[in-house]
Amino acid sequence: xxxxxxxxxxxxxxxxxxxxxxxxxxxxxxxxxxxxxxxxxxxxxxxxxxxxxxxxxxxxxxxxxxxxxxxxxxxxxxxxxxxxxxxxxxxxxxxxxxxxxxxxxxxxxxxxxxxxxxxxxxxxxxxxxxxxxxxxxxxxxxxxxxxxxxxxxxxxxxxxxxxxxxxxxxxxxxxxxxxxxxxxxxxxxxxxxxxxxxxxxxxxxxxxxxxxxxxxxxxxxxxxxxxxxxxxxxxxxxxxxxxxxxxxxxxxxxxxxxxxxxxxxxxxxxxxxxxxxxxxxxxxxxxxxxxxxxxxxxxxxxxxxxxxxxxxxxxxxxxxxxxxxxxxxxxxxxxxxxxxxxxxxxxxxxxxxxxxxxxxxxxxxxxxxxxxxxxxxxxxxxxxxxxxxxxxxxxxxxxxxxxxxxxxxxxxxxxxxxxxxxxxxxxxxxxxxxxxxxxxxxxxxxxxxxxxxxxxxxxxxxxxxxxxxxxxxxxxxxxxxxxxxxxxxxxxxxxxxxxxxxxxxxxxxxxxxxxxxxxxxxxxxxxxxxxxxxxxxxxxxxxxxxxxxxxxxxxxxxxxxxxxxxxxxxxxxxxxxxxxxxxxxxxxxxxxxxxxxxxxxxxxxxxxxxxxxxxxxxxxxxxxxxxxxxxxxxxxxxxxxxxxxxxxxxxxxxxxxxxxxxxxxxxxxxxxxxxxxxxxxxxxxxxxxxxxxxxxxxxxxxxxxxxxxxxxxxxxxxxxxxxxxxxxxxxxxxxxx
Length: 737
What we know:
Layout: E1 54-58, E2 76-77, E3 79-83, E4 97-102, E5 115-116, E6 122-124, E7 129-133, E8 138-144, E9 148-155, E10 159-167, E11 175-179, E12 184-192, E13 201-211, E14 218-225, E15 228-231, E16 235-237, E17 242-250, E18 256-263, H1 267-277, H2 283-298, E19 301-304, H3 308-320, E20 326-327, E21 334-336, E22 344-346, E23 354-355, H4 359-362, H5 366-373, H6 375-392, H7 413-422, H8 430-442, H9 448-452, H10 460-466, H11 484-504, H12 508-517, E24 525-526, E25 531-532, H13 559-562, H14 570-576, H15 580-592, H16 616-629, H17 646-656, E26 658-659, E27 667-670, E28 677-680, E29 688-693, E30 701-707, E31 710-711, E32 716-718, H18 719-723, E33 726-733
Parallel strand pairs: 29-33
Antiparallel strand pairs: 1-3, 2-5, 3-4, 4-10, 6-7, 7-8, 8-9, 9-18, 10-17, 11-12, 11-16, 12-13, 13-18, 14-15, 14-17, 19-28, 20-23, 21-22, 24-25, 26-27, 27-32, 28-29, 30-31, 30-33
């Protein structure tokens, strides 16, 4: 799948966006996950970094949970979607529409217009997608911006062609109209919630416009419902399967250009976005601008050495780690207020409002990567979280589709915000952020309705009373019910992160209380079992627990996966396990006994935990092993859901030679870099050159690390040391030193 790349090519040329669109073919595929958990769940999105729309080919027509718009294994192509899929996740698409191009045979429903296609006829890049459709005698190219896309369609013969457009409303609540005076097809697809308030309207819609060129020779327009066509009808609404079409004359081998755009505020907002981003009809200019944006992003971390396949894996990972959170605001800063019903707010000039924070996943490495490479953008994202709290009254837990959800466990906005603040990001309202984060940590919602709607920490009352969440608390009003042990562990980290923030703000009483609470992980560590375990309200642990089997007290895994979830106090965990030898032996068995599950996030820090017991060599050995066996530059090359870029962010950090084991502590655990040379050029910061001397496939161990000539000991490097710039050197060896 790796394209041949010339010496003069830009870094964007390395990336094939179809990685992760097929069932996993990595080494641990099928060992733990099932169904959609064994797909990367990515889509081949054309967009710009953190853009609003993911312009993607479509092979599935629904917006329903866990069904991505595109799967590599599918054989029929249905059109192009302006998707808002959480790339790599298992949630939902929302507010989307699809546009399809075809020959003279008008077919309107997604099923009837499905066309055979070959992956040999696809080109899938961050800035560009193209597909040849021989059955229709046409080829389609697509490029785009944050809010808009432009298509170039070339027919092989003169005759007639058709364009079909439909809002993807599974609920049948959209509308669409044809306006030939303005040469536009316009419509709306209302957004609906899942998890909390499942099926309710989210209070805003996806509005879209398809703009047709003045020289298009249109001979018929109409609407449809399913496969029933209403020629000459100008609008249709209020039922499933609706859409609009135009029929026009084609000229052989003469490219035709069509534009599409969307907004979450209004049709006029969409038109404003189009005027701001693609005012003309120059396809090549838009593509060049998109490629330039991606090359600037990839230029923040430029790798040297290794094969083209190695570079493709790195830049592909950086691409997937540059998609979410997404822009939700229009080009002029207008955006739908959080958890509201039709209210439109406006950001200050030049600022962006972001949404779709898959926070159970992305606080681990994705947000730290954004903070490292683009600290200004990180601050804008943290301010978007603050705005959500101000507008909704509570800091959200897992803010997606601009709504409260309790999709996953934990309260990890605290970790992401504390991490940004502890690393010097200041372009957001830190005091207000702390106010609402503290409310989550100490206060129960005033009404059951608020709690049921997703406000506040789940099972906080039990956590505060017991110091853990007992098995008797089934944790109602959550999509993931029970999972009491995992919740306790994650709240302990959240409390630690918030204590860091309190200390930074000089709120010492809160800091002390939260730091004591951060030790609540001890309350679910079962010294007899030797792993974390479920615990009853009387203090006794569950009996006959299999530490290696899935367990209802554990989130998506087994006790052995979650036992290592003490990133804020690994030395305390070492002590609880009876010392370094016992800790290392049990940790090593995660790999030697095939218990490690890289396809799900709770294990992502595990290989780096050896550092805290002084076994840097085992961290180096196993992170190299994971990178080699769990990542491939193929459609099945991700071992599990990419989860909004978290899986890919792990690879980027590991390739650099360090990883943020405990976000909210401004430090990283050192590993073993995957390239001979990396040049980091963070926005607004000082460049850092990372060198791996004596780099080879055999030299997987690190004999010594030096920063600007000074030896770095202890397996840890601070954020300040990295951002100070200069030269970070790893001296590689073929055996532990």
